[in-house]
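Predict the 3D structure for this chain.
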Amino acid sequence: MKTTSVRINKYLSLCGVTSRRGADTLITENRVTINDITVEKLGTTVDTSVDIVKVDGTVVELVETKVYVLFNKPKQVMTTLHDPFKRKTVLDFLKDLPVRVYPVGRLDYDTDGVLLLTNDGDLAYKLTHPKYQIEKIYDVKVMGEFTIAGSQAIAKGIKLEDGAIGKGKVEILSHTKNTSRLRMTLKEGRKREVKQLCKSVGHKVLNLSRSEFGGITTRGLKPGKWRYLKSTEIEELTKKVSGK
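Done. Predicted structure below.
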């Protein structure tokens, strides 16, 4: 790999340790060192040709073989590699995987469905960045009778808890007097966005599943199981974030 100077958070993602956001967390927790000196600034750069980077005292190096995994996440599983409360994490289902990978984005503890994992930090970053507008499709069950007015409000855009504007396409699949089933398509994937959008138009989410991420589905893959992405799937994902 070409010798270069890169920001430490990008370097850690290229090493397959974590995402760039996750790397920032490791740095603020004083768990990262460069040449045995604790990294204190998020913008610190590392010279990949000479510097020795460690996380929790263990040397990390640039990934030579990139791995891409599709996991059908069950409910009541944390989208993290470690949970202090000892709840099940995605790592519990990936013990047979020979290399370390980390989740591309997140799914809530009570949400199931499509979850991608990889050690390709650059692709993971682009797939989760709002700039690249990667489609995520969710099957949603909400309390109450969802209306066209609610769909229109979400399509127009609604302010979220973090101040960003969330919006998406909502198809009303069916409804009863007490519940409605929806298919919601989002392109930015902000934290708890589906739940926030539904709540903003008066509906509590009762069940949430992600059925598609960037064209990838879990069709034929049972909950709790994983497989490597096909080369055509990797190419398609890469194409979606190129040239933007």
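Residues 5 and 37 are 17 Å apart (CA to CA).
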